[in-house]
Structure formats: C-alpha cells, structure tokens
Amino acid sequence: MVDLKGQYNTIKDAVDKSVLEVLDSTAYINGPKVHEFQKNLENYLDVKHVIPCANGTDALQIAMMGLGLKPGDEVITADFTFAATVEVIALLQLTPVLVDVDPNSFNIEVDAIKKAITPKTKAIVPVHLFGQCANMEAIMELAKEHNLFVIEDNAQAIGANYTYSNGKKAKAGTIGHVASTSFFPSKNLGCYGDGGAIFTNDDDLAHTIRGIVNHGMYVRYHHDVVGVNSRLDSIQAAILDIKLKRLDAFNKARQKAANAYDKAFETHTDIITPFREGSEDNHVFHQYTLRVLNTDRDALAKHLNDNGIPCGVYYPIPLHLQKAYQDSRYNEADFTVTNQLVKEVISLPMHTELDDNQIEFITSTVINFVNS
Ligand SMILES: *Cc1c(COP(=O)(O)O)cnc(C)c1O
C-alpha cells in the first residue's frame, strides 16, 4: 500500500545526517530538533501552537483532557473511521455518540450531528477521512450555536487545505478549537516510529496541554493536574523536519497518482472514484478509496492480491457494530450510509513513489475484474 523504502531512498542523505546529529548530541528527548520541528510545523500550518506527543491516539486523548471534558459528557463522532477516535472517548469515560457519514466524501454528515445533539453534548470530533476535510464551516457554525468544542482528528489530512465558501483557505487541523495528528510511518507526514501532535490557536489551552503531556507539571515536580507521559523523541523529530520540507511535494505526488487513477476509471459506471470538494489542494489522498457497485468487493480484493497488488478495506465494520462500542440507543436506520460503504469500499496503493506503469497495471486489473 505504501513504498516507504522507495521514499527513504530519495531523502536518505538528509535523513541519515540529521539522525546521526541527534545520536551524537545525546539530546534524545526534548532536544533542539523537537523544538525546531515544532516551530517549522507551526509556520507551515499557520497555527499558534503545535504540541508534539507520542502518537495520534494520545494526541486525541490529550486534546480531550485539555478541554476538561468530564465523564458522561457526550462526544459526537463518525461511525466510519479508525477505532482510535472512539476509543479515547470511551477511555476517558465520555459517552461516544456515533453518527452516519456522507456517501460522497465519507466524512461526518452535518444533519446527523444535528440530530444527535442533546443537552449533554460537549464536543464534536470530525475526522478528515482519507485526506479531505469534513464540512468544517457548517460544523463550526453548529458548534457555536450549541456551545460545543470541535476537535479535528487530522491524522489523515495533514497538508490539505480547507476552502471556505468565501474562497478563504486554511490548513486542515487549524479550524476547530483543537486538532490531533499522527506521524505513524504510513501517514502523509510519517516518521520512522511513532509520533503525534496537537494543534491549537488557543494560548490557554496550549499551556494546559503542555502540562498534561508532561505528567501534569507546569513547574518541575509540581503536579497541578493528572497528566500523562507522551513525548515525541528527537530522532523522530529530526526525520519529520526533513519530511515536512517535502510535504507539499509528497502530497502533490499523491494527487498526481489520484488523477491518473481517476482518469483510468472515468468511464466505468460501477467504479465510483473519490469525490473531491473544490480545488485539487483540498484532498491529500492519505487513501485512494473506490466504491465498487455490482461487484463482489472481497473477491476483487482477493483478485488484486493474487496479482501481487496490495489493497485495503478501510473500514470493514462500522464502529457502532463493534463489540466494544455497541450502544442500545443506536438504531440501524440511522447508519444506512456506513452500513453500505463497508461493503463497497476498497483502497488502492497510494504513496509518493507510484509510477505510470504501476498505475496502469493496477487500474487494468481492477477494470477487468469489475467488467467480468
Ligand atoms: C492513524 C489514525 C489515528 C491514530 O494514530 P496513531 O499514531 O496510530 O495512534 C487516529 N485517527 C485516525 C483517523 C487515524 O487514521
């Protein structure tokens, strides 16, 4: 699905040099590389505060802790996403409220959020799925009206733009009250281990969160709040700083591959290519996900694998049907889109090193199977 080795080969000299500098400095934790990367990411995103941490799941949890959400508070999120999103809500003893998604963008459906709001609702977590922002303008308006926090799960859309209806643009993860991201190796900005970060424009919240990631300490050995231990190490920061400089180029390579896929599938009515809202820079294609109609999706996946083509099904089971997250209040009629998508979606290889021959082989193998 990804070609981490091919990408590493293109940046090997810079990465190796930077990593060796960290080894030589022995500043393995909270070294200058972490601070440099933090500043560079703040500039890139045009956000006031980036707080690095250990992974994207921690980032989400810490964002929720920072907002002071309390057990029993309801948090609305999408039924069609990676489990990390709902997991941290449940871990903090908040009440997850899963809602359906839009059939085109696969992102959380604004009307479904509206319907799910109760007096206990405290936050909405839109996930910018597969590399494209949820409908943030409508979500922020709704949040304002009901006095709710918005936490963007930006693990899949770093570098994507969001375009407001007036044409103004902002980077994904800088629109809500706070956002989380992941630097897992296969993400668009991935390190060579685990990493994550929290973004916010709120000075007070940033201060609170900086203490939470460090055992609740604001002054050494004074523990004012219950915190966690969640750090980005200096070696990962050194790698991320090299890759951040190339993030736009990496995302462009993904968009180019997506355009080639789109073109190959253009005339095939049973193959629905990813919907894109607005201009090309709005979608950074963490995944290139098709919907296949009148086709046995699992048989297609097997056929691709038999031909040496990796593929993935993100996600095969709606979260509301997962054992850990079932809730008697849910009604199947409220999840018609997710229930359908889990049967139809298939994600093709998507990374920065795809070439025309690979794309031609992948698309013709898909088309031959769907047409047969
Ligand atoms: C990857 C991912 C996470 C979790 O990130 P980790 O770094 O693996 O903890 C959270 N949410 C979404 C949508 C993701 O894709």
TrEMBL record:
<dbReference type="GO" id="GO:0000271">
    <property type="term" value="P:polysaccharide biosynthetic process"/>
</dbReference>
<dbReference type="GO" id="GO:0030170">
    <property type="term" value="F:pyridoxal phosphate binding"/>
</dbReference>
<dbReference type="InterPro" id="IPR000653">
    <property type="entry name" value="DegT/StrS_aminotransferase"/>
</dbReference>
<dbReference type="InterPro" id="IPR015424">
    <property type="entry name" value="PyrdxlP-dep_Trfase"/>
</dbReference>
<dbReference type="InterPro" id="IPR015422">
    <property type="entry name" value="PyrdxlP-dep_Trfase_small"/>
</dbReference>
<protein>
    <submittedName>
        <fullName>dTDP-4-amino-4,6-dideoxygalactose transaminase</fullName>
    </submittedName>
</protein>
<feature type="modified residue" description="N6-(pyridoxal phosphate)lysine">
    <location>
        <position position="187"/>
    </location>
</feature>
<dbReference type="GO" id="GO:0008483">
    <property type="term" value="F:transaminase activity"/>
</dbReference>
<dbReference type="InterPro" id="IPR015421">
    <property type="entry name" value="PyrdxlP-dep_Trfase_major"/>
</dbReference>
<keyword id="KW-0663">Pyridoxal phosphate</keyword>
<dbReference type="Pfam" id="PF01041">
    <property type="entry name" value="DegT_DnrJ_EryC1"/>
</dbReference>
<feature type="active site" description="Proton acceptor">
    <location>
        <position position="187"/>
    </location>
</feature>
<comment type="similarity">
    <text>Belongs to the DegT/DnrJ/EryC1 family.</text>
</comment>
